[in-house]
Write a structure and sequence with these properties.
The protein is mainly beta. The chain has two helices and 22 strands. A hairpin with a 2-residue loop joins β5 and β6. This is DUF4097 family beta strand repeat protein.
Amino acid sequence: MRTLFFLLAFVTLSAFAAAQTRLQVVTKTVEKELTYSTGQRVNLTAQKADITIKGWNKSTVLVRLKLIAKHPEREVAERELGYLNYDIQTRNNVIDLSNRFTIPQRAGAIKGNLKAVYEVWVPTRCPVSVRNTFGDVSLSDLASEASIQLEFGKLSVANLSGKTTVISDYGDIDASELSGFFTIKAEKADITLRELSGSGTIQSRYGKLSIQPDASLTSLSVQAARTEVFLYPKRLDDFQYEVETTNAIIRVPDAYGDSLDANKRRFTYSASSHKPTLLIKNSYSPVVIQLAAGGITLAK
């Protein structure tokens, strides 16, 4: 009986502790639609925010911002929600969006979890600049200039066809249907690029890079260090290849093994001089080229 009593007491206390630590969530939602003139830029500077920006066929910019505070005590969550400040305004022909934390000196450290969530719709050809730390960013259906700077989050990109510039530190990148002209510079990030076309350059350090090039890709230059590089063309003969590694090997399908040099650190192949060139240089990590269809034995 004594054992049963202690067991019941433990269960009761555990349930009480779980109830006490249940998070209270307090939110504030702001929605604003702004007039837009051709060529006007949207500039978003954020902290601890999840950001979604989509192109649409309207001639206005719609911003929906949700500010969120979480803490087991509702009073604390409500108070700290007031630390989240934001701006949504047009100045000097730029639409500026931002959020920041303003903490009174007497308040000390933040006790809860504070976050901002943006949903932004812009005209398809609207130039966009985004800077974010400790949060995810998603961009889709844009055909103008997009500049993204990201730290400690994830970037998702779909159907961007203008000029795209990405700088990412500790932020993974997942992109599909990226075209136009692109520049990607990343450190300590996993990068996945599907149906990649257009023309561009990629720099990567201490990460992983997987590329599925579309046959319409016009040029690609990759400079990598300590980054595993995987290239998945649908047909090897869609491109010319100039691939080099330092202190690592290159692996290609068996049928193309003759184009590897003796120590497997250089692969040069061209089905036709009219095909675009894929230039890849890597150090201290391998480069693997395999047909996207799979089922291919790689040269060892």
